[in-house]
Specification:
385 residues; alpha/beta
Length: 385
Amino acid sequence: MGKKRLLVTASTFPRWKGDTEPRFVLDLCKYLAEWFDVTALVPYAPGAEEKEILEGVTVIRYHYFPIHKWETLCYPGAIVPRIKEKKIRLLLVPFLFLALYFQLLKRLKTYDLVHAHWLIPQGIVQSFFKKPYLVTGHGGDVTSLNKGIFRQLKVRCLKRAKYVTVVSEHLKKKVQELVPDLQPDVLSMGVDASGFGRQYFVENYFGQNGKKTVLFVGRLAEKKGVTYLISAMRQIDALLVIAGDGPLRQDLEEQAREMGVNAVFLGAKTHEELRTIYASADLFVTPSVTASDGDQEGLGLVMLEAMASGLPVVANDSGGISQVIKNEVNGLLCQEKNVEQLTDAIASVLRDEELYKRLCQNGMETALRYDYRTIAEKYAQLMGK
């Protein structure tokens, strides 16, 4: 008997080999291939292949607008930030929903099970079909857009799913606010721990000339809280390195200049480049906050990548972050938007060698517990491999 056929749907996925887009869905697909025949169905992006094999995973990219160069709703970044950047992209949303619906209508009969990443749009569209599905909530798809028709559609999606998972205990509580009697499994995404480490260290990589380096990696959007990190760095004699892009980049660069913060903005970097960037830094900071629309951090996979790279982590206690970070054990936790506390935490880790080593060691052990080999097997068991 052959492997079951698994269709994975998502709206964040690498557009091509070496892309700077988050790759956690691809990584999970890659490891699930041990138990399933996996196909990823994702939105098209200008310049991408419509069909290809990416790291052993069959990838189908579907068109959702007649003028293909205007298919800009999903990349780079995520759907909601893309709409905030250009409101006219909101007009593409119904086209995306309809395109996914017809793709599923055409393809579902050849698959045994669907894994829909994100409640919106993948989970909602999947709920219109009888094919058994697993839906995974990652963050903003659970915590925001919880009024009116979207709330009704999300509740329908959750109730009709055969399996529901979320990436943190925090999101489990949010799901239960929508469907009180539901018991979703908490199964996070993970980290390919073998792909990071001190072996990628490059001396003086940032040209810091002996200065300590504080690193942030992620989208430059409101919930990432980078503005508070820049404010905190005013009192720290270290180089701030920011790897990532997004709608707030220009504002953040201007803030750093006005405050006299020694900051380098690298822009978006590939998975391979990030290996060296992590390994060559001294401290990683995740200053996430609750956004004005309620969006929160689902888990914070970049923290796991930093830990796997041997870095200590300072983070804000926002969203699902405290599921990974245990204060003074494998990192330091700060209150959201508390610049003084963030400053003190960063300074403490850079100053206290014993604390630094303890956080690094415990952080590495944490990253290994989230290795994709372990995470994928848990998903496979849930889906009846």
